[in-house]
Design a protein that fits this description.
Distance between the termini: 31 Å
Largest sheet: 7 strands, mixed
Radius of gyration: 15 Å
Number of domains: 1
Shape: globular
């Protein structure tokens, strides 16, 4: 999760269980799992390191290290190239990487501030901004629709998006 909660101290912040409960799906692969730690990610397999270098398959969950200014871009490029999953990032709508990702997403959910978990399981302070969940592929869209029905956030459909539901499918 984000460095803004304790600037300079840690990049280790984990997605709380209520996010996965709202998504109501199971993932095949967590591509950026914390090294050797048990978390709440409902995935059959986890990559603890080298997630950008290893092969991706199936339906993926991606909460990448947020790192520096452009640290998310290689992760998002890989995520959208894979085309099947849900990714979590800050909702930095003014950032160039965000606008680039918006053009590639099948759906995006904007959440209120999520209180992420520290490695010891305690709840961190709220970050300075909300979170975006990105869908790639039909199952990713379904997961965000589930989360929308559960009240997790606001579901948005990029105008160029071919996956936008019709009135009958909404």
């Amino acid at each position: 999760m984000g460095y803004w909660d304790t600037a300079g101290k840690s990049d280790e912040w984990y997605t709380p269980p209520h996010v996965f409960e709202a998504l109501a799906v199971r993932f095949d692969l967590d591509v950026a799992h914390p090294n050797g730690l048990t978390t709440h990610v409902p995935a059959a397999r986890h990559y603890w390191s080298d997630g950008l270098e290893l092969p991706w398959d199936g339906f993926v969950w991606m909460n990448p290290p947020f790192g520096g200014r452009n640290g998310l871009e290689p992760w998002l490029d890989r995520f959208f190239a894979h085309g099947n999953g849900v990714a979590l990032t800050p909702d930095r709508t003014s950032a160039p990487w965000f606008r680039k990702a918006w053009m590639r997403a099948d759906a995006v959910m904007f959440t209120p501030k999520i209180r992420f978990l520290r490695p010891d399981g305690s709840i961190g302070k709220s970050p300075s901004n909300g979170t975006a969940l990105w869908a790639a592929g039909a199952l990713g869209v379904r997961a965000l629709q589930n989360a929308n029905r559960a009240g997790l956030g606001i579901l948005a459909w990029p105008a160029e998006c071919a996956a936008r539901p019709t009135q009958e499918g909404a």
